[in-house]
Amino acid sequence: MNISCLTKALDYVIAAPLPEGTPEITAIHYDSRNVSPGTLFVAMPGETVDGHRFIPEAIKRGAAVVIGELPHDDLTVPYIQVTDSRRALAIVSAIFYDHPADKLTLVGITGTNGKTTVAYILESIFAAAGHATGVMGTVSTRFAGQEVASAMTTPESRDIQDTLARMVEAGVTHAVMEVSSHALALDRVRSCAFDAAVFTNLTQDHLDYHGTMEIYWKSKTVLFERHRKENGAAVINMANEHGKKLAESLSGNVFTVGSGKSPLTSRNIQVEIDGIHGEFITPEGAFPFASKATGRHNLENILCAAGAALSVGTPMEAIVQGVKDFHVPGRLERLENDRGLHLFVDYAHTPDALENVLSTLRTLVPGRLICVFGCGGDRDRTKRPLMGGIGASYSDLAVITSDNPRSEAPEKIIDDIVPGIDGELSFRYEPERLSEGFPQKGYVVIPDRREAIGLAVASALPGDTVLVAGKGHETYQIIGSQRLDFDDRKEVLKAVESAR
Ligand SMILES: CC(=O)N[C@H]1[C@@H](OP(=O)(O)OP(=O)(O)OC[C@H]2O[C@@H](n3ccc(=O)[nH]c3=O)[C@H](O)[C@@H]2O)O[C@H](CO)[C@@H](O)[C@@H]1O[C@H](C)C(=O)N[C@@H](C)C(=O)N[C@H](CCC(=O)O)C(=O)O
Ligand SMILES: Nc1ncnc2c1ncn2[C@@H]1O[C@H](COP(=O)(O)OP(=O)(O)OP(=O)(O)O)[C@@H](O)[C@H]1O
Ligand SMILES: N[C@H](CCC[C@H](N)C(=O)O)C(=O)O
Ligand SMILES: [Mg+2]
């Protein structure tokens, strides 16, 4: 594509006019390490390094044109200076890939918790409706029978446009995207116009990045204010105050779910250990449904997904069928065993998520509740004591361990969790003390996650529940800069075997 086709849409301040016969470019890159000859390199300021530093490397690798924010008059290739290169990256990528978002029925989901779950439910509903569906989210990108594990919840704008274009090429008609607050703050979804934008909830997370809850909240509202197609629906969960506030603030097509006045609500709901059943209530009448996911929070997720599906014209029959069939890996995922234990792995890594999951299990299972959890390193420190308090107060026995410590010392993270616990440490793990017996109540600290899971499962008696929270579908543990194989589900099953 000729670079002048791309620059037409840019508001550039520049710099040198592009010379005659400006080169065709064959691809767009924002990371110099991926640059190949004849491509466009967009230099972006970063949190750790400044992408402008890599312009010489990009040119050495054959970049034909460079876009950036800083003045440069000494380059050997055309340079376009813009005020915001992240924005420019999103704009030129959409042009380069021929605006794939406009060729799809596109649904975006934001909120602190529930995005992945709502995406899986919608995928199942669209499949039941016979639509060729694509998904981009925390667990994977999947379409046309292919699935690739994700590195990010919402990729960089260039990668979003590339993936959407490949979806269009593969015949996908309906695409579902999780839209993280980072993505909104960093303009990754500029140039994506959504047919439906879904809001699940807002509770504490990511304060390391956003700084305050107000800034975090504002980053989320951008999806509804700026990124809907003309008459695109804002599908809003009214079960929380932020949902109500958002619905009040928006004009146009606002499709609320779950409140008395909503076009979609539920009634006669039964939440049981094996799932939820009840009825959807719409202006067309009542529609019985059943789902294998449990917990009130999953009822909210089901309503959000059903609302989004309705807002883009999906028939109720497909919605009911899709809700019956969906499964989300690592979200209250139940592990079968022959020891009479209730074993669950869940992705709760925020205070609200942990509270929802523990309160769900507390009411549904009669025996002791043992919860194994930690908190991620290099992430919001202020959620750690909150999670400690919640984890310990809902459980009979809380086993405090490591999540993904990343660059932090695991013991330091645990030191941030423990002050939130109102109670005495019942056991600091030392292998030689095991002969004293493993505690049945209180909290214990076992920094090694494998040992923590092993001892929690070994100490459980028939009828007890063990919840391993925080890492859900993850198949790795990040310790320092190493990404080691680790899957909570496999560890739980191994622990069941070794406890025989
Ligand atoms: C806070 C954040 O989102 N950071 C993202 C941001 O990083 P950054 O601005 O710090 O980039 P940087 O590393 O300083 O580099 C600056 C620029 O130089 C480029 N570079 C760098 C090195 C080099 O040799 N050559 C080169 O060209 C980089 O590609 C980049 O364009 O831009 C990078 C390039 O796109 C992203 O990889 C990076 O995501 C990091 C890995 C990350 O961990 N992000 C997480 C927090 C995130 O976005 N999470 C949300 C989900 C959160 C949730 O809701 O749970 C997500 O959507 O995944
Ligand atoms: N609607 C909800 N309200 C509160 N908690 C929820 C809700 N849905 C799920 N959860 C909890 O949050 C965890 C994460 O759910 P899910 O993966 O669907 O959210 P997410 O928004 O995609 O998270 P992430 O931003 O980390 O990708 C679940 O394992 C569960 O513990
Ligand atoms: N997308 C979230 C995932 C957190 C998962 C948890 N296991 C952790 O590592 O903190 C984040 O990067 O903050
Ligand atoms: Mg997610």
TrEMBL record:
Q: Which part of the chain is the Mur ligase central domain? A: 109-309
Q: Which reaction does it catalyse?
A: UDP-N-acetyl-alpha-D-muramoyl-L-alanyl-D-glutamate + meso-2,6-diaminopimelate + ATP = UDP-N-acetyl-alpha-D-muramoyl-L-alanyl-gamma-D-glutamyl-meso-2,6-diaminopimelate + ADP + phosphate + H(+)
Q: Name one GO molecular function term.
A: ligase activity
**Which of this chain's residues are annotated to bind ATP?**
G111, T112, N113, G114, K115, T116, T117
Q: Name one Pfam family in it.
A: Mur_ligase_C
Where mainly found?
cytoplasm
Compartments, record wording? Cytoplasm
Q: What pathway is it annotated to?
A: Cell wall biogenesis; peptidoglycan biosynthesis
Give the UniProt keywords, A-Z: ATP-binding, Cell cycle, Cell division, Cell shape, Cell wall biogenesis/degradation, Cytoplasm, Ligase, Magnesium, Nucleotide-binding, Peptidoglycan synthesis
Please give the InterPro entries that the UniProt record associates with this protein.
Mur-like_cat_sf, Mur_ligase_C, Mur_ligase_C_dom_sf, Mur_ligase_cen, Mur_ligase_N, MurE/MurF_N, UDP-N-AcMur-Glu-dNH2Pim_ligase
The record places the motif (Meso-diaminopimelate recognition motif) at 403-406
Annotated Mur ligase C-terminal domain residues = 330-472
Q: Does the keyword Nucleotide-binding apply?
A: yes
PTM summary from the entry reads: Carboxylation is probably crucial for Mg(2+) binding and, consequently, for the gamma-phosphate positioning of ATP.
- According to its UniProt record, the EC number is 6.3.2.13
Key word Ligase present in the record?
yes
Please state what class of enzyme this protein is.
Answer: ligase
Q: Name the needed cofactors.
A: Mg(2+)
Q: Which residues carry this modification: N6-carboxylysine?
A: K220
Instruction: Tell me the function of this protein.
Output: Catalyzes the addition of meso-diaminopimelic acid to the nucleotide precursor UDP-N-acetylmuramoyl-L-alanyl-D-glutamate (UMAG) in the biosynthesis of bacterial cell-wall peptidoglycan.
Supply the NCBIfam families for this chain: murE, PRK00139.1-2, PRK00139.1-4
State the similarity comment: Belongs to the MurCDEF family. MurE subfamily.
What protein is this chain from?
A: UDP-N-acetylmuramoyl-L-alanyl-D-glutamate--2,6-diaminopimelate ligase
